[in-house]
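Researcher: Can you fold this with iron/sulfur cluster in place?
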Amino acid sequence: METITPKKEWSAAIRLNHWLRVICISFLIITGLYIAEPYTIEKGWTGEKMFMAEVRFWHIFFGMSIGLLFIWRFYLSFFSRFHADWQDFLAWTNWTNVKQELRFYFLLSKEPPEAKYLFDPLQSLSYLGFMVMLFGLILTGTIMMGAGYDQGLTALVYRIVKPVEIWIGGLATIRWIHHIMMWGVILFMAIHVNMAFLHDYLFKEGTVSSMISGTLFHRSHK
Amino acid sequence: METEGDAYRRKVKTQYRELLSHCQENLDRMEGELPKPRVNLHEELTSQGISRRDFIKWTSVTTALLMLPPVFKPLVARAAEQFSRLPVVWLHFAECTGCSEALLRTSYPNVDSILLDTISLEYHETLMAAAGHQAEQNLEKALADFNGKFICVVEGALPRGLDGKYLTLGPKGKTGIALAREVTSKAAAVICIGSCASFGNVQAAKPNPTDAASIGWALKIQTVNIAGCPPNPANFVGTVLHYLLFGGLPALDSLGRPIWAYRMRIHDYCERRPHYDAAEYVEEWGDMAAAKGWCLYKMGCKGPYTYGNCGKVRFNDAVSWPIMAGHGCMGCTEPGFWDTMAPLEKPIDEKTLGGGEKTIDTLGVTLLGATLAGIGAHAGLMAVKHRDKLHIYETSHKE
Ligand code: SF4
């Protein structure tokens, strides 16, 4: 007999943060690609177009938003009252679990690794990598945003991040790294979405909808 | 009632008054200490066809350039008159001598270049008449006479490979590093002219066979870096004037460039910037957009990554500068620009990987395609492998 037990997996804060980041990242990729390879707007008078300026405005707007969301997510992973999940990002340090998961994904075993943590080992590794990339993107983005501005928050933040610019070797390299990491995020998203769907399909526990409802339905056979 | 604005203005005024008296004292002291002027600047200017009026105009411009208020104009003029009294030793290392050429050979002599002509060069490897042992003696004499007082201007990077033997010079075959160490240790200040001395430039570009490095990096000393390939004479003259005025070097940014000149990016001053913001780009050399003077971003302009005042000061008596002439900035005031700014006529994200035709975007799209194909196939295999389980779910659903 199979029993299905609903279990709250994600707090409302995590879910909200997740979807806001999805929105931000989507807009950032679109506007970012335009900034990297803009196309000319032929029609109209120069003084009235300001298209690039506006695209840059929204890019910076979503960039700052994702910066705040990142800080919020960082805070939650340590101080969430529902479940502070910073240890789950380190699930890949459990070597037996990693081996079991590799066997599972290489079709050598039907048993998924033991669910000790919130994330599977490989999942945790990719999430950690994603977080590092996100941090890198925010940092390099902040540097490019602050360059050349004298006043306001941007100038203040720029003063803090300027040493990173010098250390890495100038704005051109910063821009290049920013572009490479964007591709990293795109690849991450492709894999992440696919894995969520695959898990949903294989285990029928409602993986995809859990990011909306917060609930995962655990199946157990007795 | 005194408003906040009044208080602020009063504070600024006091500060400037203090600064002014400091400058005056300093100039008095310098005039006492330094050797007699070599030339009378005003005679020199007249003989080159520059009127008193032009000179006054130049002082206004230079005062503004140094970010000083107009009350400093007479002092800037006074410092310019003292220019030829400052002893200078000018060294050349691994470079093309293009900076000297650019500074000294202007088509219309302006006050900046005339000032440079009058400079009291105790030793300049390109310009001096002496050669061999005689030249060496001149250098030794200058070092002894003006120990701790002269300005050492350096052009060119220092090759460090083979113990510095990639570059030897003079009758005694000294290595560049040894000579640089000897001279800079006795100088009052070291000013690096051009990107080679400042950051290593093309000598230090990959693969850097001679292990060349900038003066500051090779000798581990603080230098004033007048970056650029070549730099603007105004930036060098301004820095020396600052030294004469204040008795010290100007404030430097973290790469050793004077802040008054290298504070903002080319992109921030650029006259084509409105076209950048309006999404009006030159797509091809010589197209209609180029004729209209639109932004050169897509033609690989590196103005957004480059700190400098080229657009404000311009070159050759403010006639023009690269972006005005229709080619994008190539970022020559930034460290390692041959490597970091490549490709010079395409945006950064079209940098090719590993010497081929591939860019990061082709790589990204390929990887994305491969990932999508791979995960699709994998999902199919997983579904086949786990079909029995899926079957159970379906039957249990029916129950
Ligand atoms: S031409 Fe270059 S510096 Fe000028 S606005 Fe365009 S990108 Fe910026």
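Model: Folded with iron/sulfur cluster in place. Residues B 266-267, 270, 272-273, 276, 295-297, 301, 303-304, 323, 328-329 surround iron/sulfur cluster (CB under 6 Å).
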